[in-house]
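assembly run, all chains below
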Amino acid sequence: MKPSGYRLDATFAALADPTRRAILARLADGEATVTELAAPFAMSQPAISKHLKVLERAGLITRGREAQRRPRTLEPRPLAEATDWIERYRRIWEGNYKRLDAVLQEMKSKEKKAVDALLESGKPKLRKRRTR
Amino acid sequence: MTPTALKVTTPTDRELVMTREFNASRGMVFDALTKPDLLQRWLLGPPGWTMPVCEIDLRVGGKYRYVWQNADGRKMGMGGTFQEIVRPSRVVATEAYEDYWTGGETLVTTELVETRGTTTLRMTVRYASQEARDAAIKMGATKGVEASYDRLEQLLTA
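ok done. output:
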């Protein structure tokens, strides 16, 4: 699928800010006006509007046509494309790290066996010197 | 005893950060990350791939090269140069795929922090430019993208 009308780097840049992520999380529950979106934040409406502009430019939200309220709506497609990539990346690495868990477990049991063998054989350093 | 789940975040437009905890000392994790015979057993990517080539010259300025191969014989090579090595806590290395345009070298920083026998691995991948990042995304992007609020939730709470 070719990105159309938005760019992934703009998506990621937009997602890098915690306020913008919170706005998107709110919009995932349904459309909201600027006033409604600003309510949970200790921020002025112009500051919130600035964040909304960034999200709009990234294609993550759209503005309703209703002249009075102009509610913002979440646009799931660019976000899905970005999260899909991250999810694929995450799955590959989770597979890698599960195998690494097993390798580390084996290293630990080998080390334990070596320590046990050392303790059982008494004082290996002294014996080593004697043979020299 | 269960290690925490892998976290993937995108703190800036050029970076990707992964964190994961391991039930082992960081000396052991460091070895598993830098010794070929150990690395070849786990750094395999998607199912069906093996890593027949794993060369590591672990010193500043030293090079490494990995080649993966799948059942059909398809190969994929990657390599780079070590820029920083602080055993057992930190490795910085460049990274470039042999058959893909990556827009310059990607810088990968791996940090290991140990707390009471548990080691937290933090890997930061920093792309050379926004175009490089786009290329990496296109390489990994899957077809038929569908809206998924589950994944949105995951990303937003990351």
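Residues 66 and 115 of chain A are 74 Å apart (CA to CA).

The interface with chain B takes residues 1, 7-9, 12-13, 15-16, 21-22, 24-25, 28, 76-77, 79-90, 92-97, 99-105, 107-108, 111 of chain A (CB under 8 Å).

not gonna interpret more than that til we talk
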